Amino acid sequence: MHKSTSSSSLGPGGLDLSKTFFTPIDGGAPSSPTKRHTKITVVGVGNVGMAIAQTIITQDLTDEITLVDAKEDKLRGEVLDLQHAAAFLPRVKINASLDYAATAHSDLCIVTAGARQNPGESRLNLLHRNVALYKHIIPPLAKFSPDCIILVVSNPVDVLTYIAWKLSGFPANRVIGSGTNLDSSRFRFLIADHLDVNAQDVQAYIVGEHGDSSVALWSSISVGGVPVLSFLERQQIAYEKETLENIHKEVVQGAYEVIRLKGYTSWAIGYSVASLARSLLRNQRRIHPVSVLAKGFYGIDGGEVFLSLPAQLGRNGILGVTNVHLTDEECEQLRNSAKTILEEESVLEADIDSNVEERLLSIFGPNSKDDGDFTNDVSDANNDVYEESDDAEYVEGIGEASDDEIGEEMEYDEGIMQEGPQRNMKFESREMLFVSYQTYGFSVINRTAQKVHGSGEPKYLVICCCRARNGEVKKLPNE
Ligand SMILES: NC(=O)C1=CN([C@@H]2O[C@H](COP(=O)(O)OP(=O)(O)OC[C@H]3O[C@@H](n4cnc5c(N)ncnc54)[C@H](O)[C@@H]3O)[C@@H](O)[C@H]2O)C=CC1
Ligand SMILES: CC(=O)C(=O)O
């Protein structure tokens, strides 16, 4: 499909019409690119993607928006429909393409593509279908916009944010899930309704999973600066715990109810994501409950898990997590929510082996070379490692070696890698993409490092070969 844009200025015969309408002033310099040109990509132009796109456009949050979808006619129809509203909207360049090259140089990539829930279906049920799609979506986004922020919306949003983080190789501050920003808005609406105040004056957070195990932070709710529960206690006004629980239940059931009634949710998520886009791109430093890498916060352990915590957002993505005080009960609920998400992640481990070439290209750039054809060399090297190691069960793990690893011994014994998460792997570096199967014990039985010349400085590529130690290798590919 041809790129469709709302700002074409070419007339018949390639004449630039804009130049015929305006006469340059004497002594004027040619126009320079504007300093603050922002570009947003939205992947998936379904109910959610279009609600987000139209809210972003009406709120004048970007200079350029690129829409991507797998369905050509739907994409073309949606973009034309939006372009036809140009006379009523802030000026924005609207592009649409099936090709991710059109997303290049985006500041923010919002991913909404994917299956959605049927009435009554849980978000977690969508996991395997949407992980499969993400393998084709995230690597090209990362390749064409290596400095962007990725904002994940598709469900289950917390696990998919983790997947997007792994597939992109981005630092954790630049991969964010829309998380419970929406749940918190539902929560604030319900509290405002109970107290007959404006929802914007209610400060209240839902944290944890964007889903059934979410946690309501009752202890920190305030209205117009008044902490609600301690105020009620001070005034000796009795409130039923059950009333609070029912409000939280209504938040959790909110999405199910809308889906039962109209088939999908769209407007609220549109506004929710637009508010995140504003805070990020306009460097607002506002606090939003969004899905972040939460390991280590509030005693959350057991693996790398993304879930929602109130975080400060700005041009660099996540600027920090707010130190909100949680009661013991709230902490316990949050850790349980983390457990729910981690269980889903562990089921996935055998699923996230993504396309090696795409991942490498996203690190090293499209013209990378290693003594000839880069991608062939990589697959050869992979095979070599595999064949040389008789007892290898699976080849996995690609990333950049950190400086102090280069020139190290290439062979390791079982002692190097401990049972458990990949952080124990000696060769991990910040750019390491991933070695999956965190739930299994692995030993690294071989690895190689190659110098690869990409568009920038030469980098070292590590290819390692792992062997499971706990007898569960039958579950792995290549068996
Ligand atoms: N995080 C949140 O708070 C919310 C998340 N969602 C989630 O957002 C997702 C989208 O929901 P809807 O827009 O209602 O669904 P939809 O079915 O209307 O739209 C999905 C779109 O994704 C496109 N798509 C599928 N595979 C693709 C691929 N490989 N590349 C590009 N595009 C592809 C489809 O063609 C379709 O246009 C669902 O996973 C839903 O559960 C929905 C509401 C709130
Ligand atoms: C569908 C969904 O995740 C929501 O509206 O909360």
Automatic annotation (TrEMBL):
Residues 180-344 form the Lactate/malate dehydrogenase C-terminal domain. The keyword Transmembrane helix does not apply. It holds the Pfam family Ldh_1_N. GO terms for cellular component: cytoplasm. SUPFAM superfamilies: LDH C-terminal domain-like (SSF56327), NAD(P)-binding Rossmann-fold domains (SSF51735). One of its GO terms (molecular function) is L-lactate dehydrogenase (NAD+) activity. It catalyses: (S)-lactate + NAD(+) = pyruvate + NADH + H(+). Pathway: Fermentation; pyruvate fermentation to lactate; (S)-lactate from pyruvate: step 1/1. Keywords: NAD, Oxidoreductase. The keyword Oxidoreductase applies. GO terms for biological process: lactate metabolic process. Residues 38-177 form the Lactate/malate dehydrogenase N-terminal domain. Its EC number is 1.1.1.27. It comes from the Eukaryota. Belongs to the LDH/MDH superfamily. LDH family. This is L-lactate dehydrogenase. It comes from Perilla frutescens var. hirtella (Perilla citriodora).
